């Protein structure tokens, strides 16, 4: 699951970014202790970005902005 991978990578010193859909209910309980909330400017080890895994323009923009060394996709289809 993504929260376990995020914790593992952060413990290894990685800078971790995640994507959350704007239309989603903000269900981040499992990663709440890890992320940086841009609206409150609280620092954390994980940065969340609004986006959609099915929107290639959004993904290209985020990849260009973040310049990641590695990408892990643990997104699941929502019903």
Automatic annotation (TrEMBL):
Its EC number is 4.2.1.47. Pathway: Nucleotide-sugar biosynthesis; GDP-L-fucose biosynthesis via de novo pathway; GDP-L-fucose from GDP-alpha-D-mannose: step 1/2. GO terms for molecular function: GDP-mannose 4,6-dehydratase activity. Its cofactor is NADP(+). It holds the Pfam family GDP_Man_Dehyd. Residues 1-79 form the NAD(P)-binding domain. One of its GO terms (biological process) is 'de novo' GDP-L-fucose biosynthetic process. This is GDP-mannose 4,6-dehydratase.
